[in-house]
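Internal tracking record. Fields below are filled automatically when a chain is submitted to the structure queue. Please do not edit lines marked as system-generated. If the sequence contains nonstandard residues, flag them in the REMARKS field before resubmitting.
Queue: standard
Priority: normal
Entity type: single polypeptide chain
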Amino acid sequence: MSRVVLIDSGGANIGSVRYALQRLGVDAPLTRDPALIRAAERVILPGVGAAGPAMQRLHEAGLVEVLRRLTQPVLGVCLGMQILFEHSEEGDVEGLGLLRGRVVRMRPGPGVRIPHMGWNRLLHDGRDPLLAGIPPGAQAYFVHGYAVPGSPDAVALCEHGGRFVAVARRGSVSGAQFHPERSGTVGARLLENFLR
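SYSTEM-GENERATED OUTPUT FOLLOWS
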C-alpha cells in the first residue's frame, strides 16, 4: 500500500508536485486506480488547466464518486483545489462538492492583471494545523485566472483585485490555490503539515 498517492488528473504540474514530495522523502505514485486511491493514507489531487476537462477526466476514470467517499486526508492543488468546490464558472461545471463555495473568473482592474501570476501574501490567523509554521503574510506562488471569492471553509486568504481563498479545509479535505511545489519553504511546510 502506498502511503501517499497522486491522482493522475492530466495536469501539467504533476511532475513538479511529485518532485516536491520526493524532496520531503515521499515517493508518491501517480495513479487512476480506485483501489490504490482508496488504500492510500493521503491523497493529492494536483491540476493545471481548466475545470471542465479536469472533471471530465475524473468522470471517465470513474473517480468522481471514489473521491467523494474518501475518508483519509485529501489535498487539492491549484485546479485540484478548485474542483473540490461545488461549482466552477469555468466551463459551468459541477465540482466534487467537498468544499463549500463557487469558483468564479477573476476580474482585471487598474494594476490587477489576470491571470494572477507571481508571489503574493497569505492572510491567515495561524490557527489551522495545515498552516502551522507558516507566518501570516508569508509569500506563496500563484498562477490562476479563477478563484473562490469566499467560503466558510477558508483558512487563508489572498488579495489580488479582491480577496479570494488561498487555502481551504473542511474536515479531512483541504486545498491550496497556490502552488506549494513552487513556493519554496512555505510550500514545503504546507506539504509537510498535510503529510503529518
